[in-house]
Amino acid sequence: RHHVERVADRCRPELVLLSAGFDAHAADPIGSLGLDVDDFVRMTTFLKQVAATHCHGRLVSCLEGGYNLEALAESVEAHLQELLE
User: Fold this and answer.
1) Would you say 44 and 75 are in contact if contact means Cβ atoms under 8 Å apart?
2) Most buried one in 8, 62, 71, 82, CB count within 10 A?
3) How wide is the angle at C-alpha 84 spanned by C-alphas 23 and 25, nearest 5°?
4) Sign of the alpha-carbon dihedral angle for 22, 25, 31, 34
Protein backbone atom coordinates (compact mmCIF):
# COMPACT_ATOMS: atom_id res chain seq x y z
CA ARG A 1 0.00 0.00 0.00
CA HIS A 2 2.69 2.42 1.02
CA HIS A 3 4.67 2.00 -2.21
CA VAL A 4 1.60 2.28 -4.43
CA GLU A 5 0.50 5.43 -2.61
CA ARG A 6 3.98 6.97 -2.95
CA VAL A 7 4.14 6.21 -6.66
CA ALA A 8 0.62 7.56 -7.21
CA ASP A 9 1.48 10.73 -5.30
CA ARG A 10 4.54 11.21 -7.47
CA CYS A 11 2.98 10.26 -10.83
CA ARG A 12 -0.50 11.74 -10.29
CA PRO A 13 -2.31 9.34 -12.65
CA GLU A 14 -5.25 10.45 -14.76
CA LEU A 15 -6.60 6.88 -14.75
CA VAL A 16 -6.02 3.74 -12.72
CA LEU A 17 -5.88 0.67 -14.95
CA LEU A 18 -6.37 -2.52 -12.97
CA SER A 19 -5.33 -5.86 -14.40
CA ALA A 20 -7.78 -8.00 -12.43
CA GLY A 21 -5.99 -11.33 -12.26
CA PHE A 22 -7.68 -13.81 -9.98
CA ASP A 23 -5.15 -16.59 -10.51
CA ALA A 24 -3.60 -15.50 -7.19
CA HIS A 25 -6.52 -17.25 -5.42
CA ALA A 26 -5.49 -20.13 -3.15
CA ALA A 27 -7.70 -22.55 -5.10
CA ASP A 28 -6.26 -21.61 -8.50
CA PRO A 29 -4.26 -24.44 -10.12
CA ILE A 30 -1.77 -22.09 -11.81
CA GLY A 31 -1.06 -19.18 -9.47
CA SER A 32 -1.91 -20.58 -6.04
CA LEU A 33 -0.57 -17.53 -4.21
CA GLY A 34 -2.86 -18.07 -1.25
CA LEU A 35 -5.26 -15.13 -1.59
CA ASP A 36 -8.99 -15.38 -0.91
CA VAL A 37 -12.04 -13.39 -1.99
CA ASP A 38 -11.68 -10.93 0.90
CA ASP A 39 -8.11 -10.15 -0.19
CA PHE A 40 -9.35 -9.20 -3.65
CA VAL A 41 -12.06 -7.01 -2.14
CA ARG A 42 -9.49 -5.21 0.04
CA MET A 43 -7.25 -4.60 -2.98
CA THR A 44 -10.21 -3.30 -4.98
CA THR A 45 -11.18 -0.95 -2.15
CA PHE A 46 -7.63 0.35 -1.91
CA LEU A 47 -7.32 0.96 -5.66
CA LYS A 48 -10.68 2.74 -5.68
CA GLN A 49 -9.28 5.04 -2.98
CA VAL A 50 -6.17 5.70 -5.07
CA ALA A 51 -8.37 6.52 -8.07
CA ALA A 52 -10.60 8.78 -5.96
CA THR A 53 -7.59 10.66 -4.60
CA HIS A 54 -5.74 11.14 -7.86
CA CYS A 55 -8.08 10.91 -10.84
CA HIS A 56 -11.66 11.65 -9.83
CA GLY A 57 -12.39 7.95 -9.35
CA ARG A 58 -11.49 6.93 -12.90
CA LEU A 59 -10.65 3.25 -12.73
CA VAL A 60 -10.80 0.59 -15.44
CA SER A 61 -10.73 -3.07 -14.46
CA CYS A 62 -9.83 -5.70 -17.06
CA LEU A 63 -10.22 -9.41 -16.36
CA GLU A 64 -6.80 -10.98 -16.80
CA GLY A 65 -6.71 -14.44 -15.28
CA GLY A 66 -8.21 -17.07 -13.04
CA TYR A 67 -8.43 -20.76 -13.81
CA ASN A 68 -10.48 -22.28 -11.02
CA LEU A 69 -13.96 -21.42 -12.27
CA GLU A 70 -15.63 -21.46 -8.84
CA ALA A 71 -12.98 -19.25 -7.23
CA LEU A 72 -12.96 -17.02 -10.31
CA ALA A 73 -16.74 -16.54 -10.22
CA GLU A 74 -16.73 -15.70 -6.50
CA SER A 75 -13.78 -13.34 -6.81
CA VAL A 76 -15.10 -11.50 -9.87
CA GLU A 77 -18.53 -11.09 -8.26
CA ALA A 78 -17.02 -9.65 -5.08
CA HIS A 79 -14.69 -7.40 -7.10
CA LEU A 80 -17.57 -6.04 -9.19
CA GLN A 81 -19.75 -5.48 -6.13
CA GLU A 82 -16.97 -3.47 -4.51
CA LEU A 83 -16.46 -1.44 -7.69
CA LEU A 84 -20.17 -0.59 -7.75
CA GLU A 85 -20.31 0.60 -4.13
Assistant:
1) no
2) 71
3) 15
4) positive
What separation, in Å, do the N-terminal and C-terminal C-alpha atoms of the chain show?
21
Q: Are 22 and 40 in contact (CB under 8 A)?
A: yes
Closest by CA to 23, choosing from 13, 15, 14, 34, is 34
For residue 40, which of 13, 17, 18 has the smallest C-alpha distance?
18
- Of 80, 69, 2, the closest CA to residue 41 belongs to 80
pLDDT digits (tens, 9 = 90+) for 52-72: 999 999 999 999 989 999 999
Please give the model's pTM, rounded to 2 decimal places.
0.92
